[in-house]
């Protein structure tokens, strides 16, 4: 058996968990206040295109001229308004918490829908074009379609499987992000793109299910891109079948996307008007199911090496964060924490981890996430 320098045996099956915050996607997705600003900019960009250009929407293979289409204008005017409200309250998450506390369920569902539309456009098209996004007069930021650090991470963590690459069985992810950067980066290691998020979930489980502990990633705030309406698109009345905000095959260009969004929005409105059971896959931690939280607690309890990337432990997530940290500390075996953040609040982290001795701080590397020595050797 191999020994460490201190004479203790190395455990080749140590569990490694990456705990991801917004900073983990900083190279591709605007965060905090910048995300609200970006939502507004995306909405304005689309509204200008609808105003200044003739927009052709296709139905049944025939082109219909629909300049200044009212429904599309309504969608992106609403997206703009939600971005302004999120900016007013400091972040999308804080504004969402306000709606939840006030019991404004319909408005919260609207926010989730428009947020998914924003992420669809941003992650599939706008960031891929390296849009020059201006946050203030002094700085401009160029975003990549996928943060390249995810590529680097998977090149090390993935192993060859029978028919497609698989994540090492001892590695898991817990994320506060509702972007799909992690999933899309994994997909880049497949032979070809999947046809849908459901198909991607088959290769790399990330959706909520009855056995969440088997998932390789748990999204504490849910993830963007899908919603369910009781009674629609199911085989039988009363069934719930998930479908994407806009089917992936329609995200090739903006005109095609807008045409598909036109039809999707009709279904979304039917669900609201009929007061049917609506579910969005963006499901904030305070709305989370016990199954998801229990799965996250289980992963933390089994974790030996916890790598925290770009997460500031904001106050409104603190109760859940502390619960998960307590599970980590209570678990058996050797424990180690690596905290990667550009501006770490060491006092806060030490307080949360109760002055845990085996905790190190690292600057968040712009080129690569931390790879534990325990994994490499």
Strand content: 15-25%
Overall 3D form:
globular
The level of helicity is 40-55%
Q: Describe the biggest sheet?
A: 6 strands, parallel
Number of DSSP helices? Answer: 12
Sketch the topology as an H/E string, one letter per element: EHEEHHHEEHEEEHHEEEHEHEHEHEH
CATH architecture label of the largest domain? 3-Layer(aba) Sandwich
Q: How far apart lie the N and C ends? A: 13 Å
- SS-based class: alpha/beta
Low-confidence stretches: 1-10, 232-239
CATH class designation of the largest domain: Alpha Beta
* Lateral arrangement of strands in the main beta sheet: 9-8-1-13-14-15
Radius of gyration: 22 Å
Q: CATH fold name of the largest domain, please?
A: Rossmann fold
The total number of structural domains is 2
Total DSSP E strands? 15
Short description:
The chain is of the alpha/beta class. It is built from twelve helices and 15 strands.
Please give a structural write-up:
By secondary structure, this protein is α/β, with parallel strands linked by helices. It is 41% helix and 17% strand. It contains 12 helices and 15 strands. A 6-stranded parallel sheet has the order 9-8-1-13-14-15, covered by helices on one side. The chain is globular and about 60 Å long.
């Amino acid at each position: 058996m191999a020994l460490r320098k201190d004479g203790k045996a190395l455990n080749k099956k140590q569990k490694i968990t990456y705990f991801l915050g917004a900073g983990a996607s900083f190279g591709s997705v605007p965060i905090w206040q910048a995300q609200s600003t970006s939502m507004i900019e995306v909405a304005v960009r689309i509204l200008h295109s609808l105003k200044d250009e003739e927009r052709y929407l296709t139905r049944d293979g025939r082109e219909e001229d629909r300049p200044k289409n009212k429904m599309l204008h309504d969608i992106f005017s609403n997206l703009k308004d939600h971005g302004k409200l999120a900016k007013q309250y400091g972040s999308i998450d804080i504004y969402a918490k306000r709606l939840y506390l006030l019991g404004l369920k319909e408005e919260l569902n609207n926010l989730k829908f428009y947020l998914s539309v924003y992420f669809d456009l941003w992650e599939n098209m706008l960031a891929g074009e390296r849009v020059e996004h201006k946050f203030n007069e002094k700085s401009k930021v160029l975003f990549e379609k996928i943060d390249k650090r995810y590529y680097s991470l998977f090149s090390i963590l993935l192993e060859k499987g029978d028919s497609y690459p698989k994540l090492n069985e001892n590695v898991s992810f817990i994320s506060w992000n509702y972007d799909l950067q992690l999933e899309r980066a994994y997909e880049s290691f497949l032979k070809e793109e999947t046809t849908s998020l459901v198909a991607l979930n088959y290769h790399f489980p990330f959706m909520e299910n009855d056995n969440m502990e088997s998932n390789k990633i748990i999204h504490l705030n849910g993830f963007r891109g899908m919603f369910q309406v009781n009674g629609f698109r199911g085989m039988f009345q009363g069934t719930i079948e998930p479908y994407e905000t806009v089917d992936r095959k329609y995200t090739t260009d903006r005109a095609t996307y807008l045409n598909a969004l036109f039809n999707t929005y009709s279904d979304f409105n039917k669900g609201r008007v009929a007061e049917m059971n609506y579910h969005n896959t963006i499901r904030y931690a305070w709305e989370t199911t016990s199954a998801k939280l229990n799965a996250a607690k289980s992963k933390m309890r089994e974790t030996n090496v916890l790598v925290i990337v770009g997460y500031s432990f904001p106050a409104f997530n603190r109760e859940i964060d502390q619960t998960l940290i307590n599970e980590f500390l209570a678990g058996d075996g050797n424990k180690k924490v690596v905290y990667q953040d550009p501006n770490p609040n060491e006092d806060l982290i030490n307080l949360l981890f109760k002055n845990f001795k085996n905790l190190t701080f690292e600057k968040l590397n712009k080129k690569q996430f931390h790879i534990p020595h325990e994994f490499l050797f």
